[in-house]
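One record is given unchanged without comment:
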Amino acid sequence: MTARERMQRKLRTKRGRTRYRQRGASVEPVFGQMKDRQGARRFSMRGLARCRGEWLLDAAVHNLRKLHRDSVRRMEKARERAAKRMQRAA
């Protein structure tokens, strides 16, 4: 059975259609973000091992950006809470 036939078979079921619909909300935005923010449109190296290494580096950068963004947001919220406490104490 080819990949196309397996996908057609999967999309015939209600569960398969639901799971495929969820894919756009969970997986594919990551690739778009990596392309847009990191310029990861093509591999600059040749060979499977080197491309795999480049992909892993792009994925690590993507995850580090997310961690950084979240830590900055947490710090901003902590500063806001501290400022409110200072206002109440004064």
